[in-house]
Amino acid sequence: MIIKVCGMCDAENIRAVEQLDIDWMGFIFYRRSPRYAGDADTEIIRRCIRKKVGVFVNAPVEEILTKAAHCKLDYVQLHGDESPAICRDLTVHGLPVIKAFPIASTDDLKRTEDYESAASFFLFDTKCEGYGGSGQRFDWSVLANYQGNTPFLLSGGLTPDAADEVRRFRHPMLAGIDLNSGFETAPAMKNTTTLAPFIKHIRQTKNSGNNTIGSFTFARVCQCY
Length: 225
Known about the structure:
It contains seven helices and ten strands. It is of the alpha/beta class.
C-alpha cells in the first residue's frame, strides 16, 4: 500500500512528515493552489528522503521537465487536461506519470481508457469545479466499474476517521492512498499528530495478513490540492 502525503511546501513541516512511514510526498506546482510549492526552498525538496511527486496542471512539457530536474522529482502527477501523448512524452524523458481523473460517476471512468499505456498510475479524486481536490469524498462504489490494467491511488476527502473505510475498500488495482487537506491544520501544514496513527493503523492492517485493502502489491523500494 503506497501512502502519499500531498500538498507540502513548508520546510519544517516537510522534515516532520518525511519521518513518518510514508512512501511518496507531493509538491504542487500550480500557482492557483493555496499549497503552491514553487516558492519553497528547492534544496529542501531535493533532499526529501521520500519519493517526490510534482503535481502540475496543464503546464508545458518543458516547464515540467525543468522543474523535475531542479527538484529531483521521481514522478509527475498531472491534474489537468493533459493528453495521453503528453503523458507518453514525459515518460520517454524518464518521468513516470500519475494521471489524475475527477470521478463522480461510471461515465468518468471511460476517460481512463485512452491513458492505459500512457501512465504508470491513475489517481481518482472527487469531481469538482476547476482543477484539484475539494476535500470531499466521492462514492467509491463507482470504482467497481473500473476494469483497467493501470493501478490507481484513491484520493478525495480522506480524513483521520476514514481508516476503517479504507480497510474495507476492495479493488484488485488499488495501489495506494493520497492524503492531503483532511490532515491539515492550515493549507499545506500537515498535522503529524493525526497522520501518524492513521498511517500506523493502515500499515498494521497490511501486515496482519488482512487482504481487505486491495490485492495490488507494490515494492516499497520505490519510494492534492
